[in-house]
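User: Sequence for F5/8 type C domain-containing protein below. Tokens please.
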Amino acid sequence: MPVIPLLLLLFFLSACSSAEKKSLIHAFKFADKNRQELKRILEQYQEDSPKFAASHFIIRNMLGKQSVDTNSIKASQPYFDAWATYFEKYGRYKNGAHYVICDSINRLHPNKRVHTRYIPDLQHISADFLIRHIDYCFHIWQQYPWCKDIDFDTFCKYILPYTTSNCYWEYASDFFLQKYAELRDTVQQKSYKEIGAILSKDVDRTFAQNWVLFTRKYPGLLPTTFENLAKAQIGTCLEANIYKIAALRANGIPAALNTFPNWGNANSPHFWTEIIGDEHIEELYDNIQRPYISDSDILVDNIFWKNTYSPTVKDTLPHVSIQYCRTIPKVYRINYEIQQNCLALRAKEEIPDFFRNPGIEDITDKYIVCKDIEVPLWDNKHKKEYVYLCCYDDNNWIPVGWSIPRKKQALFTKVGVNVLYLPAYYENGAIIPAGNAFILKENGELKCFSEEANKKEISATFYSKTPYRLHTALQAAGTVGTRFSVCNKKDLSDSLNVYTIEKLPFYEDSFKIPTNKKYRYLVCDFQNTPAFQDAYSIAEIKIFGKNRQQLEGQLTGTKGISDNKLENVMDGDRVSFYQPDKSEKRQYIVFDLGQPREVEKVEFYPRSDDNRIVTGELYELFYWDKKWISLGRQYGKENRLAFHNIPQNALFRIHNHTRGKEHRPFTYEEGKQVWW
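Assistant: Structure tokens for F5/8 type C domain-containing protein:
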């Protein structure tokens, strides 16, 4: 086998920066026994300067890239095989089919555990694959008319990379070449941005994103291979965007993965795809609550809890405000190219997982209103080299930005406004507070939660442990128009209407039946309720006779979908719910009480997150002062909590000891809970 001429390699390296040279040397060293494959790639293109430069770019930036060892995820493969079979036959998942498939496989293979292992790409990737991949990328870049304005630098960074977030498939290019052949023939005169938008919509239409399925119901099914994603078309928002970016790049569209470690006022990270060259944003997102009117309001991907115009959804009670939007603390791009100023290359101490990726680039100021801020710290000397800004999720503070402390302060750049933060150290996987928690106001001021600010005491009434989010309000609004009637004839011909839900029920509605007559049947008719994005759903219906005795009965009516079956309306669980099959002609439920009974009261619970204060359940109130400090426990009364002699300007949270785990931090302002 010929070797790369020494003079050619030396000439090329002389044109590289010192960082690029170092990266290439490290890549060959780390490749170990696989370095011959890397040499083959460079040898292949020693007479072709652009491809030689491109192959150099791929190899020197391969450090840190890895792929799933397929042998380590065999236990999850039956799920993806079954999903792939369904998708090939039927296309999009309908009526909860992905849940049904998952439940069926789990019954056949219960308690299968997946312990995912990764293999470094440098140590196993083949020259044949990368040569084929590089040739394919150059072909589309040079042949597709919409690529004519894409320069070499953009091509290398955003079309050439073979992987996104440690997930690739050797045959992805062939897959997308065939999948979108007809589309390419119809868009020859369009720009790459227009074609990118068409491809993105197609992926959004077919790829099923389901966070709950993969993180709560069946954790461990992810990560998986790109081949599984392509064939099964299912995953979380991360997998959906990995797939979308591969589809775009395979068709000559430069694209990148954007992300942040955690929302500012909600749990979990988020990912979305940016088409490079289409990132101009006329208005930056200021993290202020606003209702969705049209798609032009979506300043950043997925900020609204629901992309639904909701003029009928109003604040339900004087003390409750609907939360329309998620807030964003920082925005990062995950590049294939190693970023020389990234924390992963600088740090000599343990750092959070998110910042171990050497491709992270801070692009916060492209998307949101942000400030450079000096954050006060408690100590003049620091136990760690780096300090982090953290946002709060369900139980922990999550690092979202980093800085180097200088005496009793740290400069953090491009920090999103109207968000709650905590400066902290990272030690042995734990977050150690380094200063007071604070809210960054839009004008750049810090509202700090300090011991001094907590001295004044007040009394307060609390109604929930999380904000009343738009999707929960929409689920309630969707039940407006539900009619209840009573009767004694089996054919329901003698039905007497006794109540109609006329306004949005805040977690529940109830009514009394003003008659002493006995009835055998209670009918819940939802034939003419409004149509929102979410299907009609009911969490619970309770029927009471004399002396608050709860009445039992037999249920008939419109069948439910998947696990959201009819029986859920009387299972005593406010979280499970019934979702009727809308394909059926009649939309109703009949409660057969067995014999005529006196019915005094009916309670109706729409589907919800069940996060309001509930009478009889035990809660504990905490406030933040370097840690969460208890202010005492209390049982809910009349669906509220009343506390006295508590700090006025404090940061609070409420924990339910009876059931549930979700909660959010809040302040108490002008008699209302304000959520962060």
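Residues 651 and 667 are 5 Å apart (CA to CA).
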